[in-house]
Write a structure and sequence with these properties.
Shape: globular
Helix content: over 70%
Largest sheet: none
Distance between the termini: 54 Å
Number of helices: 8
Number of domains: 1
Order of helices and strands: HHHHHHHH
Number of strands: 0
Radius of gyration: 22 Å
Strand content: under 5%
Length: 248
């Protein structure tokens, strides 16, 4: 059963196999309930292990692993500063971590007996809420309370801003937009990855006849996984850019 209560096609994974082999119903239900967090923790452990290995063996002439992370960090930094400017460099670690974590979760379902945690809305919503809280914290820190309220009223205002009604309407609309962002951000990621994984599960059920389509769609899933990770981080970077102080 899916989170919405509608039966869906899924490839078997370690958690579902373990749950089906257990006689205790409560333990089986708990495993299924915590399926996405368990796979998320596995991915966190793998990324942390690889990152620690790369940082422990620093050398003047970098090896392949160190060189990969240096190139990746430089690429993310160029990506962030290209949108926000040099003031946004302090957000590079956060956005860079988001990208590599989301990409790993998106691709994890391609490994036999594993599952992409981003097929669960609880996972993507948690990521979107982290972005939302950090962006709002940044807005209050950079603009202050009154500056934040002024920012929400919109600029430029012109002659219509002399009335109280227009700024209040803009303030209300911006608040609604801010609250909707975590929902849209999380659903976009979850829906795309869930749809791709479901399609692969359906094609796998065709047996040998579905191998050509399965191979072709696997390539599409890899491309989609990268694109969705980029889109998530791009929107996050834009959200930061919108709340930072801009020079005239």
């Amino acid at each position: 059963m899916s989170e919405t209560g509608i039966e869906s096609h899924e490839l078997p994974n370690l958690i579902t196999l373990a749950a089906s082999s257990l006689k205790d119903v409560h333990i089986s239900e708990s495993l299924i309930k915590w399926e996405a967090p368990i796979f998320s923790l596995i991915i966190i452990f793998i990324i942390s292990f690889v990152a620690s290995r790369a940082s422990k063996r620093k050398a003047l002439v970098p090896g392949r692993l160190q060189n990969f992370f240096e190139l990746y960090t430089s690429a993310v930094d160029d990506f962030v500063t290209g949108i926000i400017g040099h003031a946004g460099r302090k957000y590079t670690p956060f956005i860079g971590t988001l990208f590599i974590y989301i990409l790993a979760m998106n691709l994890f379902g391609l490994i036999p007996f594993m599952k992409s945690p981003t097929t669960s809305w609880s996972t993507t919503l948690a990521l979107a809420l982290c972005v939302f809280v950090y962006v709002q914290y940044t807005a209050f820190k950079e603009l202050g309370f009154f500056g934040y309220v002024d920012h929400m009223m919109g600029r430029p205002r012109g002659m219509l801003a002399l009335s109280v009604v227009i700024p209040l309407i803009m303030f209300f609309l911006h608040i609604v937009a801010e609250l909707v962002r975590p929902v849209s951000l999380s659903l976009r990621l979850r829906s795309n990855i869930w749809g791709d994984d479901t399609l692969l599960a359906v094609l796998a059920g065709f047996g040998m006849q579905g191998v050509p389509l399965l191979f072709f769609n696997t390539l599409l899933v890899i491309i989609t996984s990268v694109v969705q990770a980029v889109v998530f981080c791009l929107l996050t970077t834009i959200y930061f850019a919108l709340v930072l102080v801009h020079e005239e």
